[in-house]
Amino acid sequence: MADFTGTFDETFDLPVDVATAVAHFSNTDVVAANYGVLESYEKVGDDSLALVLPNQNHGVTSFQGRYTGTWKAVGDNAVEWSTKPGSGNLVSEGRATFAPTAGGCRMTWRSKITITMDVNRFIGKALGPVVGTFVSREMRAYCDRMIAALPR
């Protein structure tokens, strides 16, 4: 088994107020609609989703992400998300904080995903940078989709 981690940290100016941004980024219906390609998902309560990602087969190994995540508003100006412990082979965690600006708000996004794959140590070392870059790129794409879906 090997763990692979990708991170994505960036700041964005959004054309909505803080309250709208917090409501949007903590809404699991919006999260599911903009997550990207999913094999399946199920709402588990008001703030959680059980997600199954499509199988990724890259020749030397394949991976199908599964986890249950929660998305919660924290106070009036932040959203946090995390994986419920023991719910799968992927751990996602992050925080978006929002500060008012003249044209809406500024979002500071910090996220990290660690996936656990059944590969030997040699293949794990070779795949580490590639998988980390892929995971980071997917987090960026998700963030971009969520921003594009903001109410106008």
How many individual helices?
3
Main pleated sheet: 7 strands, antiparallel
Strand fraction band? Answer: 35-45%
The structural class is alpha+beta
Could you say what the CATH topology is called? Alpha-D-Glucose-1,6-Bisphosphate, Chain A, domain 4
CATH architecture: 2-Layer Sandwich
Beta-strand segment tally = 9
Query: What number of structural domains do the residues give?
Result: 1
Instruction: Tell the overall outline.
Output: globular
Query: Cα-atom Rg, whole angstroms?
Result: 16 Å
Average per-residue pLDDT, rounded, comes to 91
Order of helices and strands: EHHEEEEEEEEH
Secondary-structure map:
Blueprint: E1 2-14, H1 18-25, H2 28-34, E2 40-43, E3 48-52, E4 56-57, E5 62-63, E6 66-74, E7 78-83, E8 90-101, E9 104-117, H3 121-148
Antiparallel strand pairs: 1-9, 2-3, 3-6, 4-5, 6-7, 7-8, 8-9
What is the compact description of this entry?
This protein is of the alpha+beta class and 152 residues long.
Task: Characterise the protein shown here.
The chain has a single domain (2-148), classed as Alpha-D-Glucose-1,6-Bisphosphate, Chain A, domain 4. The model has no long low-confidence stretch (mean pLDDT 91). The radius of gyration is 16 Å and the shape is globular. The protein has helices at residues 18-25, 28-34, 121-148, and strands at residues 2-14, 40-43, 48-52, 56-57, 62-63, 66-74, 78-83, 90-101, 104-117. It is built from three helices and nine strands. Helices cover 28% and strands 44% of the residues. The chain has 152 residues and is an alpha+beta fold. Strands 1-9-8-7-6-3-2 form a seven-stranded antiparallel sheet. The protein has a two-stranded antiparallel sheet with strand order 4-5.
